[in-house]
Specification:
The protein has about 270 residues and is mainly beta. The protein is built from 2 helices and 20 strands.
């Protein structure tokens, strides 16, 4: 049965914590008792990219959110407007947890999490400046939007950071790694857009599994998936709608289907017609 939809309560507070080139908080802020922010400058890879990490340490009972936060939550947003010699940034998301919050499911992290980010440089042989802001949401009884400012020099080289390396390894399995033998989707007209039914043949990840469907287009919203399992076959149904309320085209190759279980996850790229 679908839960009634409610709106999370957001505090009027917008916290701002600055981080210097050493990755240490530079000034006290109203959110210091909720979240500590450390920037891990990481290292330059053999391919010429730079791996850095945002380490978030949350007070007891507080949580922050994954890229698709569920029915209640604020996804992280990265702004690198003050940077130099940076062309692109890509998050490598650790396996998240699923929480019940105010009658809705949310997806994210508790305690401490390191969010690895891989940076593509304009000149891989030159130093870089990473400066900007990470906006996150943190929630307990209320939700607080938090802005975390940072500025750090990224020299050529750098030692491989063990904490950051562990976070990189804590990733969802690929379809091949998880033993997915079938992954296809049926798309039909729905009340406000489309209904997508994904059929996946994969071993169970635990007693409770959550399936998240991402369209690859931020203007296309998806509802929480209704999930049923019969042995190794998992079927998930979700509704897709465009924010404009109008019709839309769905790029099947851009679909990302993530199955989250007990401490593990599987990420499936693309979903052909069933």
């Amino acid at each position: 049965m679908k839960r009634p939809r409610t709106t999370p309560v957001f505090a009027a507070l917008i916290g701002l914590a600055a981080v210097t080139g050493t990755g240490t908080a530079a000034a006290a802020s109203p959110v210091d008792d909720i979240v500590r922010f450390d920037l891990l400058p990481g290292w330059r890879t053999e391919s010429g990219t730079q791996v850095v990490g945002f380490q978030l340490t949350l007070a007891s009972g507080w949580k922050t959110y994954w890229r698709a936060p569920g029915e209640a939550g604020i996804p992280p947003e990265l702004n690198l407007a003050g940077s130099r010699n940076l062309a692109q940034a890509r998050f490598h998301w650790p396996v998240p947890e699923v929480f019940e919050q105010g009658g809705m499911d949310s997806i994210g992290y508790v305690g401490q999490v390191v969010l690895p980010v891989e940076l593509t440089l304009d000149d891989a042989a030159a130093p870089a400046l990473m400066a900007g802001r990470l906006d996150i949401g943190v929630c307990r009884d209320v939700c607080v939007p938090v802005s975390l400012e940072f500025s750090t020099e990224l020299p050529v080289g750098g030692d491989r950071d063990a904490v950051l390396a562990v976070a990189l390894a804590d990733r969802p399995m690929t379809a091949k790694e998880a033993g997915v033998s079938r992954a296809d989707c049926r798309v039909e007209p729905g009340p406000k857009g489309m209904t997508l039914t994904a059929t996946l043949d994969l071993p169970a990840l635990g007693a409770d599994e959550t399936v998240v469907v991402e369209s690859g287009d931020p203007a296309i919203w998806s509802t929480p998936s209704a999930v049923r399992r019969d042995g190794n076959r998992l079927v998930a149904e979700t509704a897709l709608a465009h924010v404009s309320g109008k019709g839309f085209a769905l790029d099947r190759s851009a679909l990302v289907i993530t199955v989250i279980g007990d401490g593990s996850a599987v990420e499936i790229q693309g979903c052909p017609a069933g």
